[in-house]
C-alpha cells in the first residue's frame, strides 16, 4: 500500500514556502533528455551578480567624500582651523602651481615612487620565479623573504640611513623594499598553483626551460603578479610619504613637513590630496592593465 505525498494544496506548511522556480528562466529539456529543470546561467548571473558596471563608478566614492567635506565646511560644522575648506585648498594649489613649487615637488615625488616601484617589482618577480620554479631557489630565498615580510619596511629606515645616508638612494631603496614583498608573495603563490597538466604537456612537447617560462609559467603567474602589483603601488606611496619627511629637501612630503612648522593646514591637506590622487590613478592604471591582459577570464565582476 502506497501513501501519496502531500501537495502544496493539501499542506499549508508547504504552501507557505515560495516557489523558487517561479521567477527562474526555465527551458524545456530536449526530447530524450532526463526530466528536470535547468536555470539559465545568464539569468542567474544577472540576479546574483553585482550587476552592470557603473560608468565612472570609481569616482563616485571620492566625489561623495568631497561633497561631505564641502558641506561640513560651508555650514560651519568643520572648523577651518582644524580642517581647511576645499575651496581654500584649491586656491592654495593654484598659488603653488603659479609659482612652480607644486609642480617641482610633484615631479620629484613621482620620480622617487616610480623608480622604487620599478626596482621592487622587478626584484620581486625575479625572486618569485627563482623560488617558484626551482626547489633550490625556494630553499634559499623563500625563508629570508618571509622573514623580511614579518619586519615592517619603515623599521629598516634607521639602518638604511646608516648605510646609505639621507639622499635619494635611501629613499628609493625604502620604497623598493615596500614593493618587493607583495609582488613576490602573490607571484610565487600563482606559480605554485599552475595546473600540473600544463607542466606535463610542456614536457611532452619538449619545451626548453626558457620556452616553459615564457609560454606557461609567466602567463600562469600573471593574475597573481597583477594582484601583487596593485598592493605594491599602495605600498610605494605609503613608503614615499614617510621617506619624504626624513631630512628631505624636495617632494610633496617635504612641502607638507615645512607647512606643519608654520601651521599651514591647507598645504598639508593639499599634499594629502595629491598623494591620494596619485594612489588612485596608479591603482586604476593597474586595474585597467589587469582587465585588458586577463580579458579571457569570466569572473563575477566582469
Provide an overview of this structure.
The protein has 302 residues and is mostly helical. The protein has helices spanning 12-15, 41-48, 60-74, 86-98, 101-133, 135-150, 157-164, 168-192, 196-204, 209-243, 252-261, 265-293; strands at 26-27, 38-39. The chain is built from twelve helices and two strands, in the order H-E-E-H-H-H-H-H-H-H-H-H-H-H. Strands 1-2 form a two-stranded antiparallel sheet. The longest helix is centred in the C-terminal third of the chain and has 35 residues, at 209-243. The two termini are 55 Å apart.
The quaternary organization reads as single chain
Spell the H/E element sequence. HEEHHHHHHHHHHH
Strand order of the largest sheet: 1-2
Please state the overall shape, judged from the principal axes of the Cα atoms: globular
Ends: how far apart? 55 Å
Helix tally equals: 12
- Helix share, percent: 55-70%
Structural class estimated from helices and strands: mainly alpha
Number of strands: 2
Q: What does the largest sheet look like?
A: 2 strands, antiparallel
- Overall pLDDT: 81
Low-confidence stretches: 1-28
Beta content comes to under 5%
Radius of gyration: 28 Å
Short description:
The protein has helices at residues 12-15, 41-48, 60-74, 86-98, 101-133, 135-150, 157-164, 168-192, 196-204, 209-243, 252-261, 265-293, and strands at 26-27, 38-39. With 302 residues, it is an all-alpha fold. Helix 4 crosses helix 12 (265-293), helix 5 (101-133) runs antiparallel to helix 10 (209-243) and helix 7 (157-164) packs across helix 8 (168-192).
Amino acid at each position: 500500500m502506497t501513501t501519496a505525498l502531500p501537495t502544496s494544496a493539501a499542506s499549508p506548511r508547504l504552501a507557505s514556502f515560495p516557489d523558487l522556480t517561479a521567477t527562474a528562466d526555465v527551458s524545456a529539456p530536449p526530447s530524450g533528455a532526463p526530466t528536470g529543470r535547468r536555470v539559465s546561467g545568464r539569468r542567474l548571473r544577472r540576479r546574483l551578480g553585482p550587476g552592470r558596471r557603473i560608468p565612472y563608478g570609481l569616482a563616485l566614492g571620492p566625489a561623495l567624500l568631497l561633497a561631505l567635506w564641502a558641506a561640513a565646511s560651508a555650514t560651519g560644522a568643520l572648523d577651518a582651523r582644524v580642517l581647511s575648506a576645499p575651496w581654500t585648498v584649491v586656491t592654495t594649489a593654484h598659488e603653488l602651481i603659479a609659482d612652480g613649487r607644486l609642480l617641482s615637488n610633484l615631479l620629484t615625488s613621482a620620480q622617487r615612487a616610480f623608480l622604487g616601484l620599478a626596482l621592487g617589482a622587478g626584484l620581486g618577480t625575479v625572486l618569485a620565479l627563482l623560488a617558484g620554479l626551482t626547489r633550490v631557489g625556494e630553499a634559499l630565498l623563500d625563508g629570508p623573504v618571509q622573514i623580511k615580510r614579518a619586519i615592517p619596511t619603515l623599521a629598516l629606515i634607521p639602518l638604511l640611513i646608516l648605510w646609505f645616508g639621507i639622499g635619494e638612494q635611501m629613499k628609493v631603496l625604502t620604497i623598493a623594499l615596500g614593493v618587493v614583498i607583495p609582488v613576490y608573495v602573490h607571484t610565487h603563490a600563482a606559480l605554485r598553483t599552475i595546473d600540473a597538466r600544463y607542466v606535463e604537456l610542456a614536457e611532452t612537447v619538449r619545451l626548453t626551460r626558457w620556452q616553459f617560462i615564457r609560454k606557461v609559467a609567466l602567463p600562469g603567474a600573471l593574475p597573481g603578479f597583477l594582484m601583487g602589483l596593485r598592493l605594491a603601488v599602495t605600498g610605494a606611496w605609503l613608503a614615499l610619504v614617510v621617506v619624504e619627511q626624513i631630512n628631505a629637501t624636495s617632494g610633496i612630503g617635504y612641502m607638507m613637513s615645512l607647512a606643519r612648522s608654520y601651521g599651514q593646514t591647507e598645504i598639508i591637506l593639499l599634499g594629502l590630496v595629491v598623494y591620494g590622487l596619485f594612489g588612485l590613478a596608479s591603482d586604476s592604471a593597474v586595474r585597467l592593465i589587469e582587465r585588458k591582459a586577463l580579458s579571457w577570464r569570466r569572473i563575477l565582476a566582469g
